[in-house]
Amino acid sequence: MKRFIVYALLIFCSLLFAAPLFWAVTTALKSQSELYLFPPKWIPSDWKFINFVNAWTIQPFNLFLKNTLIVTLLSTIGQLISCTLVSYGFARFEFKGRNLLFLVVLATMMVPWEVTMIPQYMEFNYLGWINTLKPLIVPSWFGSAYFIFLLRQFILTIPRELDEAATIDGASKFGILVRIIAPLMGPALILVGVFQIMSCWNDYLGPLIFLNDQTKYTLTLGLSQFKGMFGVDMQSIMAITCLISIPPLAVFFFAQRYIVGGIAGTGIKG
Amino acid sequence: MAHTYPQTVGKQSASLGPRRKRRWGGAAPYLFIFPWIFGFLVFTLGPLLFSLIISLFDWPIVGKVHFIGLGNYVEMFTDDPLFWKSFGVTLKFAALFVPLNIAVGLGLAILLNQNTRGNAIFRTAFYLPSVISGVALAMIWSWVYSGDYGILNYFLSIIGVQGPDWLNDKNWSLVAMVVASLWGQGSMMLVFLAGLKGIPKDLYESASIDGAGKIRQFISITIPMLSPTILFNLITSIIAAFQQLTLALLLTGGGPMKSTYFYAMYMYENAFKFFKMGYSAANAWFMFLIVLTLTFLVFKSSEAWVFYEGEMKRKPEKTTKSVRKGRSA
Amino acid sequence: MKKKISLVVLTTAMSMMLLTACTGNNESANGTTQPVNGNGSTKVKTLRFATWDTGDALKIEQDIAKKFETNHPGTKIQVEAYADGFDQKLAAGFGATNPPDVMYMWDFPTYHQSLEPLNSYADGDKDLNKDDFYSGLFNYATIENSLYGIPAGFTTRVVYYNKKMFDDSKIPYPKDGWTWDDFQDISKQLTDKAKKQYGFGVRAENDTYDLQGFVWSNGSSLISDDGKTINGYMNSSETASAIQMFGDMVKNGSAVLAGGKGQQSGEDIFKGGKIAMWESGIWPLESFKQAGIDVGVVEMPAFPGKPVKGVVAESALSIAKDSKNKDLAWEFIKYYVSNEAIKMRVADLPVRVSVVKELKKDQDPLYKPFYTMLQRSDNTPAFLLNTKWNEINRQLSAAVESVVHGGNAQDTLNQTVKESERYLK
C-alpha cells in the first residue's frame, strides 16, 4: 500500500512537471491554424516536423550551437577547478579574515546585475573583449560564489579525521585535497558541473550584453530572435526550446546517478 | 560561517612541528582561495564600487551627470511610493516563496529518495522545468494561467470550479507567481537529494533498533544531518526571492495594479526604462544591505541549528550525541 | 566623474593583463572564434546596425545589408539583432560609449542627446528625396528643430475584424465613418459568453501612447499643446469618457480583458477566433493571415459629431553621436529608405509616396485604412511635448490599468493629475 502511494505520487508529480513540456512539443508541431484553438488540442492533426527544420535554419543555429558548446565546456572546466580550490581553502583552514572573506563571497551572490552590468561592460570594452566569448568564459575560472558555498558546505561534512590521518602520513595540504577530499567530493563536483552547464547553456543576459555580431551568438540569443518587440513566433520558439533542451537533459540523465548514488559512498568513512 | 574551530584541532594535526605548521598554515589558505580573490578584485569589486559611486549621482545613461550626494537615497525613502510598494511586494513574495521552496524541494527529494524502480526517469522528469529557458517558460505559464482559455481553468471547470483570471486578478497574481517559481525548483531538490543520499544508512538502522519511529528518525537524524544543506538552500532561496525578476518581466510586467511589481523589477525599470542609473544603483544598494543583513542573521542563527559532521565531536548536543552513538555502533 | 571611471577601469585592466597571462591556454582554445574586430581592421570598414526586428523581418534586413555590401565593396554591415533586449543593449552601448553606428529608434525624447543631428545630411543630400516621404513623418523624429532620425517605417492604428464571425452572426462588416456607439453595439451582439467568444478585447496593460488617438478623437488631449499643463487635459471629461468606455465594455461583458505583457495576448485570442474585433497597428496583420483568419481592416470609429484622429507610431534610423563612420552610416540609411529597400521590406508600411502609388497599397482594402488614418494624424503626441513625460506616463499607465480593472476614470485621472503635477515644474 505504501509503495502504491509512493508510485502514485511520483507519477502524478512527473506529469505535473512534464505536461507543459509536452505542450511545448505539440505546439512546435502544430500548424498555424491549430495553435490558438480552445479548448486546446493536445495532439495536432497534422504533424509538422518541418517547423523544427524551418526554425533551426532561418538563423545559423549550427553556429550558435558551436559557440554555446565552447562557452559551456570551457567555463565548466574553469568553474570546477577554481571552486574546488577555493571551497577547500574556506572549509579546511583557519586564517585571518576568513569569516569576513566568506561573507564577502556570499555577498557577491546578492549583488544585483542591473547596476554592475554597465561598469562590467565598460571594463570588458576596455579590454577589447566585447563581442568575443571571453566575458562569458574567463570569469568562471575564478569561482562562483554559489558553487564555492555549495562545495564548502559539502567539505564540512567530511570528517576531519581523514585529513588528520593523511597529515600524519606526511601528505601536504594540496595532497590531501587531491588524494582524499577531491575523490570524496566526486558527486558534489558532478552536481556543480551539471548546474554550471545548465546555467551556462541557458544564460541569456550575459550573451545579450557582451555579444554583438551574430556569428558570436549563443543558442539562447538565437532563441530570442523569435520574440521581437512586436510579435512572437510561438512555433519556432517552442521548436527551438525543445531542441536545445535535449543536450542538458541528456547530461542530467547520465549525471544524476552519480550525484545521488555516489555521495552515499561517504557513508563508509565512519 | 561563524564557526571557529577550537584550538585543539590545530594541535592535533601539528605533528610537523608547531613552527612549520604555522608558516604553512599562514600562506596556504590564501593560495587556495587566491582564484576567487583575484576574480573578485578584477570582475566584481570595480563594478561594485562604481555602482556605489554612481548612486551619489544623477546619472542618466544619455545626458549630463550631476553629483547629488545622498539625493537618490533621500528621494527613495521619502518621495517614491513605488519604492515602498515594490519592497512590500517582494517581502510578501519572499515570505511565501522561501518556506514553500524549502518544503517542496525537500518533499520532492524525499519522494525521489525512496527505493523505486525507474528512479532515473522520475528524477529527470522532476528536473525537466529547470532546463527550459526563460522565454519559453513565460509562454508556457501564460498558457496555463489564462482566464478564459487557460489549461488550469479548463481542468478546474471539468470539476466544476470557476477559476479566476490568475494573472489579471490582483488577488491571485502573486500566488500564481509563487507557484510558477516553485515549478522550477529542480536544483534545490537536487541539492537536497544529494544531501539525503549522504546520510549514512547505519544511522537509521541503529535508530530503528533503538525503537525510533519514522517521524522520530526524521527529526533526530534526517534534519540534523541535512542541516548544512538546509542552510545552503535557505540562503540561496532568500537571495533568489529578493532577486526574482525574470518571471515578472516576461509574464506580468509587474501588473495587474502593481501586484507583482517586485523590487528587482522596480530597479530594472529605473535603470532600463527610465535610464536613471544613479537612482537604480541606490535602489540596488539598499536591497543589497537588506539581503546581506538577512543572510548574516541566518548565519548567526545557524550556529545553533546547523551541524557539520566534520566537526561533530566538538558539538556535544543531544542530537549529535545520539548520532555519534549510532555511528560508532 | 569621467576621471574616476577611467581610474577604476585602469586598475582593473592592469590586473587583467596578469590574468590574461594566467589563462593563456584557455584563450588559444577560444582563438578560433576570434572576431574581425569592428573599427580596428584597416581594409574592411565595419558598420554596426542594431535592430529590434526578429524572424522574417530580420531576415529581410540581413538581405538589405548584404545588398548594400555588394554595392559598396570594402564595407561590412554587422546586423545586430537585439530583439527584446533592445533597450538594455543600447543602455550598455551608450553607457560605455560603444554604441552601434546605426540603430532603429522611436523613443527620441529619451535618446536624442546621444544621437547625431541629421538636418544637414537630410537637407544637403538630394538622393534622399525628402519630399517623397509622407509629410509629418519627420516631425516624430524632430526635437527642438533638430532631426534625429530618418523614417523607415510607421503604423497607424485600425480595427481588425474577423469576417467569418460577422457572417455567422449576420452582422454587416463595419465601414469607415462608423461611430463608437456602432462599435459597442456590434461588440455586444458578437459576444457569446457560453462559447467564450467576445466582440472585442481590451488590453490589461495599455500603452498610453496608443490611447491618445481616442482622446484626440473625443476632442481632448493628455497635455496642453505647450506641454506645460495637464490639469483640464489629462482629466478632462472627454479624456475620462474615452477611457471609461473600455472599462465599461469589460464590466458589461461585451469585451474580454486580454493579458498583459507576455501573456496570451489579444492577438492570440483573435487568431483563435474568439474575439471578433481587435484594435492595433500593422504588426499582427501578417500573422492573422497566416493563422487562416479571414481578416478585414477598417479605420477607427468616431465619437458622434467629432472628427476621427489617428496616432502614428514611427520607426526611424538614427546615427550614434559616438559613431566613427558617420558618412558610411548615412549612406546605409539612405539605402535603407530607398525605393529598392522599401520594396524588400514587405511587412512594413512604405514611407514613400512613390512606392505606395507604385504598389497600389492605398487601394488595397487591407492597407488603405492605415493611410487614411495617417492623414488624420496631425496631433503631436505628449512625449514630444514634455521631457518629463516618462514620469507622468508611469502614473497615467497605472491609472488606465485601474480603469480597465473596474475603476472610475474621472476620479482616477483627477488623482493622477494631482500626483503628476510636480513633474511639470
From TrEMBL, chain A:
CDD domains given in the database record: TM_PBP2
Q: What is its main location?
A: membrane
Report any Pfam family annotated for this entry. Answer: BPD_transp_1
| Subcellular localization(s) per the UniProt record | Cell membrane
User: Which family is this sequence assigned to?
Assistant: Belongs to the binding-protein-dependent transport system permease family.
Which PANTHER family does the protein's record reference?
ABC TRANSPORTER PERMEASE PROTEIN MG189-RELATED-RELATED, SN-GLYCEROL-3-PHOSPHATE TRANSPORT SYSTEM PERMEASE PROTEIN UGPE
Positions of the ABC transmembrane type-1 domain:
65-255
Q: Which UniProt keywords apply?
A: Cell membrane, Membrane, Signal, Sugar transport, Transmembrane, Transmembrane helix, Transport
Q: Which SUPFAM superfamilies match?
A: MetI-like
How does the record say this protein sits in the membrane? Multi-pass membrane protein
Q: Which domain of life is it from?
A: Bacteria
Name of the protein in question: Multiple sugar transport system permease protein
Q: Which organism is it from?
A: Paenibacillus macquariensis
List the transmembrane segments. Answer: 69-88, 100-118, 138-155, 176-198, 236-255
Give start-end of the signal peptide: 1-18
TrEMBL record, chain B:
What CDD domains does the entry give?
TM_PBP2 (cd06261)
| UniProt subcellular location | Cell membrane
Does Secreted appear among the keywords? no
Q: Where is the composition biased (Polar residues)?
A: 1-15
Entry's PROSITE patterns?
ABC_TM1
Q: Where is this region: Disordered?
A: 1-21
Q: Name it.
A: Multiple sugar transport system permease protein
Q: Which UniProt keywords apply?
A: Cell membrane, Membrane, Sugar transport, Transmembrane, Transmembrane helix, Transport
The family this protein is said to belong to: Belongs to the binding-protein-dependent transport system permease family.
Q: Which organism is it from?
A: Paenibacillus macquariensis
UniProtKB/TrEMBL annotation, chain C:
Origin, by domain of life? Bacteria
Q: Name one Pfam family in it.
A: SBP_bac_1
Q: Where is the signal peptide?
A: 1-21
What keywords would UniProt list here? Signal, Sugar transport, Transport
List the transmembrane segments.
Answer: none
Give the family per the record. Answer: Belongs to the bacterial solute-binding protein 1 family.
Task: Return the protein name.
Answer: Multiple sugar transport system substrate-binding protein
**Native source organism of the sequence:** Paenibacillus macquariensis
State the taxonomy lineage: Bacteria, Bacillati, Bacillota, Bacilli, Bacillales
